[in-house]
Structure to design on (1013 residues):
């Protein structure tokens, strides 16, 4: 793209590109996010292109970023009718092209089918998963080609930047962001406008802005999909922020485990530079700013701001005491604003549509929308964007489609390893920053992990402690030693070696770790333990007093047995058992030798008759 | 050219590519690992020398971050996702099965140098859980049966060539 | 000068003084392990925590790093503070059961070992305070040792546990270590530390072994003072 030298020229380029982007034109979009690539979507895309070429028709096949309904990938949408096809395979391509693209006919077997009513849905916007969402930030993911800046500009991209640079002052932009009450989307929920103002006023130069794309919370992948699917929205937000704050250099810190995000962000930065939207004298103003990408080295703790700074500075990611705010002394001890990538992606919206519009969405203290990753034991796994204040029940049942295999909802874990578990009794909670704190959890970066009656909550607490122990930087005693000791106690409990008083001890240690830790990793480490003790005390008691795991998970406390009524004697379990614990004659009910059984689960997976019982 | 001096000169070029900037240490180490499939001791020493960073500091960074391996790794890197969603969907059983199949534990490499096993915290493909990433390919909805199939296929490929 | 209240007592201190100094100067004792006058502070051991109140907000901070502010209200013995100190000592006693220094400190604070924590046997007396690493980096300037890996795997030493090419055998790390974890042995004209044996220099005047030859060579190179002028021990100077 040729260099754009002023705001007027940008508007002209936009108009020209918008003319080529005709909403009535035929096009086939296919989701090419990392998740769908795992389903083999690239092969499907190649097959679509080959078939279209074979049929000699002029229809674009556009690989887009993740558009959220990850459970049903590969996803294909045929425009302009917006016919939504799910679980598309290479074998379906011929049908899609010849019947839908060329003749306007639908291929019903590829439609979304409601599991309860068996009704099919044709249009994307009618699919229950999408119906209740408000995809302000995430919506473009399904339309644009993330590797081409022209695609972003054609839908109005960078007009917020043009408006900011030509019509607004830096202070004016900060006031707008403050008025919109944009709160950080990374977990802290701090007022972004206040942070920007603090940095603008701080002494020191150069000033830095950073986009935190570390997304370490396991089970959360919103940021990945944003960075892969709409990298320019983040870049645009950052440029506007840098102008408002007076920063000259920006960094996007991407975790090591997201290679595609790094590729797409690099392409976006390169093309923004070519177009004169990054670099010296942006759009003809005297504002200069550039962005570099830093890849993480595989450390959850580097999502913490001072550890992230240490990482960019080339050191081990150990946090340091934050008695002086980062906006005064951050990266290289210079004034720095660190915000999550989703926060930055909200900025162009606020500038384009205004703070009043933004503040009309959400609740009193939590404005706008939030993207959540709805994963675990849920029918419609995927990324959902909803206005703040929507009830958990709505998200899990209306959008998420409830719990698969007829099982019962038990808990939803929010806020990652810093958060807590929310039981069924609290499902009518509106999701916003403050409400979740009140019940002992937090929104965090947006991960929502749904659990059913076969999830053991003591095992979940143990899992999080193991995670935190692995990720602790090791600098301070309460976290390094305390989390380890808590984990040891939980290992004992899950192994049937828990003792009376363990729960009280866990609660006591928790207070010391929460108060004494240097950073929030240690500071919030007790949360998963405390929230599971609070809402699932009976499970802890069963493990400690009765040496029983009600959910049937903790290996030392369960036994596998074969139901002779269901067993057909097919011998599959004998084939797969690694310790030869199963035995029996052909066509006769088999048995399991409890002494040899390691509860590995191989037999359960292989049994087609559901004959293995877990007690 | 000896192996050690080859490693040193390659490292020198990598350092140069990043402008010799001390803060680029992590990026330099990432490039070194990309080149050699692990971080050789001679490369770490060379990086320290050409960047003006004490060897103990280089080693601190190399041992702090999970992405780095100081031991040579196998031809195929098998990564098991241990994210919460995958855990809830049974990742622990998949890990057990993988350990039994490859006869190694995470952090180890098979004696024929074909497979290295690692655990990784959430690759962000939660809808496909449990996920196993082998090299750059994502294998979703893993079952113990699939572990046999996927590993079997990779073992056979080697045997043919 | 700033005015603040510590345990109900009004004190005055120059602006920018760390709370630790301000509190100790007022005659109130605060335990520390990772703070050493020779090196910069890291706030790693968390023993020196105090509870501060600023406006409506209370917070637990390490007094070694928090700078005194006008109007701050400090409590050095609140329940939360004592709880953190107790936990830190219990954890350290379990980590380094052999350390007499820790046992003594625990007794002073009134903390007993927590029986539910199974004592380690492979950590020696190292509490990972990083004082040794800091003195080697900041004072000596060779950075021979470091803290490697992370979390509960964190360990102090030389890279690859091999002999360090840059160590000068000065023993500064031994002097700053609060628990005596680092081993330095001297036999005749040899000193052994961090797996490397150093030849010791004899004093020109009294003939005693007083410093490693390598250390003197290092000082000579750094300062330009010729070796011949350095081979006299501090007592004979």
């Amino acid at each position: 793209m040729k260099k754009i030298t002023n705001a007027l020229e940008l508007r002209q380029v936009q108009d020209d590109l918008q003319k080529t982007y005709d909403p009535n034109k035929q096009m086939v979009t296919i989701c090419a996010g990392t998740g769908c690539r795992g389903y083999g979507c690239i092969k499907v895309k190649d097959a679509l292109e080959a078939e279209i070429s074979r049929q000699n028709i002029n229809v674009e096949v556009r690989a887009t970023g993740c558009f959220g309904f990850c459970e049903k990938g590969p996803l294909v949408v045929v425009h302009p009718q917006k016919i939504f096809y799910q679980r598309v395979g290479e074998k379906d391509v011929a049908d899609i092209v010849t019947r839908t693209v060329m003749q306007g006919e639908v291929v019903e077997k590829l439609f979304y089918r409601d599991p309860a009513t068996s009704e099919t849905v044709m249009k994307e916007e009618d699919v229950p998963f999408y119906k209740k969402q408000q995809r302000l930030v995430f919506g473009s993911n399904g339309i644009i080609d993330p590797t081409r800046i022209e695609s972003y500009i054609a839908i109005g991209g960078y007009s917020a930047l043009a408006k900011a640079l030509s019509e607004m002052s830096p202070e004016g932009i900060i006031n707008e962001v403050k008025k919109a009450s944009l709160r950080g989307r990374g977990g802290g929920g701090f007022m972004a406008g206040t942070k920007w103002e603090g940095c603008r006023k701080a002494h020191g130069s150069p000033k830095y802005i950073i986009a935190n794309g570390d997304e370490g919370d396991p089970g959360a992948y919103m940021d990945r999909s944003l960075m892969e699917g709409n990298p320019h929205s983040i870049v645009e937000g950052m440029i506007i922020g840098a102008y408002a704050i007076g920063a000259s250099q920006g960094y996007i810190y991407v975790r090591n485990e997201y290679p595609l995000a790094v590729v797409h962000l690099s392409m976006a930065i390169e093309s923004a530079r070519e177009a004169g939207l990054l670099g010296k004298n942006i759009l003809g103003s005297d504002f200069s700013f550039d962005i570099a990408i830093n890849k993480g080295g595989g450390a959850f703790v580097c999502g913490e701001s001072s550890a992230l700074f240490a990482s960019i500075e080339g050191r081990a990611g150990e946090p340091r005491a934050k008695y002086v705010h980062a906006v005064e002394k951050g990266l290289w001890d210079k004034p720095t604003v660190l915000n999550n990538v989703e926060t930055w992606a909200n900025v162009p919206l606020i500038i384009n549509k205004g703070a009043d519009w933004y503040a009309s969405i959400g609740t009193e203290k939590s404005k706008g929308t939030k993207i959540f990753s709805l994963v675990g034991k849920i029918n419609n796994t995927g990324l959902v964007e909803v206005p703040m204040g929507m009830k958990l029940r709505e998200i899990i049942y209306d959008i998420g489609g409830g719990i698969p295999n007829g099982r019962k909802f038990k808990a939803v874990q929010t806020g990652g390893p810093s958060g807590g578990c929310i039981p069924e009794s609290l499902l009518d909670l509106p999701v916003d920053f403050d409400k979740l704190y009140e019940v002992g959890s937090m929104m965090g970066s947006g991960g929502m992990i749904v659990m059913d009656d076969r999830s053991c909550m003591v095992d979940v607490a143990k899992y999080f402690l193991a995670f935190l122990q692995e990720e602790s930087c090791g600098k301070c005693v309460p976290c390094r030693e305390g989390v380890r000791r808590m984990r040891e106690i939980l290992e004992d409990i899950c192994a049937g070696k828990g003792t009376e008083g363990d729960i009280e001890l866990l609660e006591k240690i928790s207070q010391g770790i929460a108060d004494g830790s240097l950073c929030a990793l240690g500071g919030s480490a007790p949360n998963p333990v405390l929230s599971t003790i609070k809402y699932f005390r009976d499970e802890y008691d069963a493990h400690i007093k009765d040496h029983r795991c009600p959910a049937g998970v903790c290996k030392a406390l369960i036994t596998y047995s074969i139901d002779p009524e269901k067993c057909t004697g097919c011998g599959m379990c004998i084939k797969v058992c690694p310790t030869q614990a199963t035995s029996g004659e052909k066509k006769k009910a088999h048995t399991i030798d409890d002494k040899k059984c390691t509860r590995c689960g191989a037999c359960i997976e292989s049994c087609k008759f559901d004959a293995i019982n877990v007690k | 050219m000896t192996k050690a001096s080859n490693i040193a000169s390659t490292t020198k070029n990598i350092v140069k590519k990043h402008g010799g900037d001390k803060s680029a240490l992590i990026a330099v180490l990432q490039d070194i690992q990309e080149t050699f499939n692990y971080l050789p001791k001679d490369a770490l020493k060379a990086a320290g020398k050409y960047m003006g960073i004490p060897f103990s500091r280089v080693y601190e960074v190399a041992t702090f971050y999970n992405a780095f391996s100081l031991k040579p790794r196998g031809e195929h890197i098998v990564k098991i996702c241990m994210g919460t969603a995958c855990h809830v969907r049974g990742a622990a059983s998949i890990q057990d099965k993988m350990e039994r199949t490859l006869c190694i534990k995470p952090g180890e490499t098979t004696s024929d140098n074909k497979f290295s096993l690692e655990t990784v915290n959430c690759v962000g493909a939660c809808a496909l859980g449990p996920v196993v990433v082998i090299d750059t390919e994502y294998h979703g909805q893993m079952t113990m049966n699939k572990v046999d199939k996927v590993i079997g296929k990779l073992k056979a490929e080697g045997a043919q060539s | 000068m700033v005015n603040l209240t510590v345990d109900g007592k009004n004190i005055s201190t120059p602006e920018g003084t760390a709370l630790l100094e301000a509190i100790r100067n007022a005659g109130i004792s605060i335990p520390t392990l990772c703070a050493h006058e020779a090196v910069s502070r890291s706030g790693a051991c968390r023993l020196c925590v105090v509870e501060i109140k600023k406006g409506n907000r209370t917070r637990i901070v390490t007094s070694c790093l928090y700078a005194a502010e006008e109007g701050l209200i400090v409590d050095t013995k609140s329940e939360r503070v004592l709880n953190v100190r107790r936990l830190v000592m219990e954890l350290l006693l379990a980590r380094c059961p052999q350390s007499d220094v820790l046992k003594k400190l625990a007794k002073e604070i009134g903390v007993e070992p927590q029986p539910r924590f199974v004592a380690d046997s492979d950590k020696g007396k190292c509490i990972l305070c990083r004082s040794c690493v800091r003195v080697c980096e900041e004072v000596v300037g060779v950075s021979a040792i470091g803290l490697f890996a992370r979390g509960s795997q964190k360990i102090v030493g030389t890279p690859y546990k091999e002999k360090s090419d840059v160590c000068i055998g000065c023993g500064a790390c031994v002097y700053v270590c609060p628990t005596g974890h680092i081993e330095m042995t001297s036999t005749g004209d040899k000193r052994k530390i961090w797996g490397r044996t150093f030849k010791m220099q004899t004093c020109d005047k009294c003939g005693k072994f007083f410093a490693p030859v390598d250390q003197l060579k290092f000082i000579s190179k750094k300062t330009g003072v010729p070796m011949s002028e350095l081979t006299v021990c501090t007592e004979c100077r």
